[in-house]
Write a structure and sequence with these properties.
Mean pLDDT: 93
Cofactor: heme b
Low-confidence stretches: 1-5
GO molecular function: peroxidase activity
Helix content: 10-25%
Keywords: Iron, Metal-binding, Oxidoreductase, Peroxidase
Number of helices: 14
Strand content: 15-25%
Number of domains: 2
Largest sheet: 4 strands, antiparallel
Protein name: Dyp-type peroxidase
Family: Belongs to the DyP-type peroxidase family.
Number of strands: 10
Length: 444
């Protein structure tokens, strides 16, 4: 679809990490900081404005190396942003992710009391993310950010997570990652689904009209405009348990791959069932212009090809009318692998921590991330599947199985264990470059 031109984004003021897909392959680092001294926290913001790259300001020759700076609500308070301003931010952001655990399904092993310290605590004030095509360029990106926090004794580094692309460029369960990216009106960045009309800029960047025609901007405008909300989540993957589940429910290795595809909605190469229903097609999976260009309602309303309850159909039902107005719940999603891979064929857990750092970016925490998490991933009212939850990331009860629609008889798999455990996360605000400078110039 051609991109509409009725909005002009101030791309030179928007952080590059908001709209640009991460490079492939990639290396990344997330660093969290606590502000112990307000004046030095403001100095961190001033320095960050020089380190952060905008959408129009590439650092590497390929334009694929950049630094992003995000601030939590407690971080804005630590910087001295007045309550009258904080009250204009999304109420979910003001509460914080830990306080929203029940709505998000973060219970049991995923409950905040089991999260990795200091994630979810009031101590996390600033999150700096560096992304690059490889470890060498990542170090350059970190070096670019280092002057922003170095030699500031009132700013304390409290957490770091390094991420990288596996040699296969897949995540730990074996699926190609980073396949889907929405088109944003006015960004100049193409979406991955050529059948999707670009979404209004206000769905992702604050201060612009959204799909409902409204404009949401935290106050004052210099702080809110051109910013976005970011959701960071560290998700531990139980790889050995996932492999055992596939093997225990399959009749042979080929059937294992079919079950894996039905659970995800894609073959592990990235080829979607919608376009490769009978067998994997690695050439299709490797083609970024073809592998995401399909719909559900038009071609497969009953889910006989792509099950309605599979992961990618829940996360983005595309043209499915049963899921309501899908365009109101679209997000920019990015995943980055952490931890060592479990060797091929190993069926027992080795005790290593491995998984994904997920980032979700949008302008509406409630009707985007929280809605998708609670209504599409951890409920099945929209999909007519009873108490079933997302088979990959859902907060499973160990009782409900997975059903594959099939003629003449549907296929029922055994009860699903929980394959993904939340290790922590934060709701953050990604200020514009001018907002970073404004935060740096605050006075009590």
């Amino acid at each position: 679809m051609s991109e509409a031109a009725d909005v002009e984004l101030e791309l030179d003021d928007i952080q590059r990490g908001v709209l640009s897909p991460r490079p492939t392959p990639y290396a990344a680092a997330y660093l969290a900081f606590r502000i112990d001294d307000r004046a030095q926290g403001r100095e961190l913001m001033r320095r960050s404005a020089a380190a952060v790259t905008s959408v129009t300001d590439p650092v590497s020759p390929l334009g694929e190396t950049w630094v992003s700076v995000a601030v939590t609500c407690s971080g804005l308070a630590a910087l001295g942003v007045p309550d009258s301003s904080l009250d204009t931010f999304a109420w979910e952001f003001r509460q914080g992710m830990a306080a929203r655990a029940t709505a998000l399904g973060d219970e049991g092993a995923s409950a905040p009391e089991n999260w990795e310290t200091p994630l979810g605590s009031p101590d996390v004030h600033v999150v700096i993310a560096a992304v690059a095509p490889d470890p060498l360029h990542l170090q350059e990106a970190v070096d670019r950010a280092r002057p922003a926090y170095d030699r500031l004794p009132g700013v304390t580094a409290i957490w770091r997570q390094d991420c990288y692309a596996l040699p296969t460029e897949k995540e730990h369960f074996g699926y190609l990652d980073g396949v889907s990216h929405p088109a944003v009106e006015g960004s100049g960045i193409a979406g991955s689904n050529q059948l999707e009309i670009p979404l209004k800029a206000g769905e992702f960047v604050l201060g612009y009209p959204d799909e409902l025609g409204g404009t949401r901007t935290p106050q004052p405008p210099v702080l809110g405009r051109n910013g976005s909300y970011a959701v960071f989540r560290k998700l531990h993957q139980k790889v050995a348990e996932f492999r055992r589940y596939l093997k225990d429910n399959a009749t042979d290795p080929a059937d294992e791959e079919l079950i894996a595809a039905k659970i995800m909605g894609r073959w592990r190469s990235g080829a979607p069932l919608a376009l490769a229903p009978q067998s994997d097609d690695p050439r299709l999976g490797a083609d970024p212009h073809r592998r995401n260009t399909f719909l559900y309602e038009r071609d497969d309303p009953a889910g006989f090809t792509t099950p309605g309850g599979c992961h990618i159909r829940r996360a983005n039902p595309r043209d499915a009318s049963v899921a309501g107005e899908v365009r109101l719940h679209r997000m920019i999603r990015r995943g980055a692998v952490y931890g060592p891979p479990l060797p091929d064929g190993v069926m027992e857990d080795d005790g290593a921590d491995r998984g994904l750092m997920f980032a979700f970016i949008g302008a509406h925490l409630g009707r985007q991330f929280e809605f998708v998490q609670s209504e599409w991933m951890n409920d099945s009212v929209f999909f007519g599947a009873g108490s079933a939850k997302d088979p990959v990331t859902g907060s499973q009860d160990g009782v409900t199985g997975f059903t594959i629609p099939r003629r003449p008889l549907r296929r029922r798999l055994a009860a699903l264990p929980q394959f993904v455990v939340t290790r922590g996360g934060e709701y953050c605000f990604l200020p514009s470059l001018s907002a970073l400078r404004w935060l740096g110039d605050l006075h009590d």
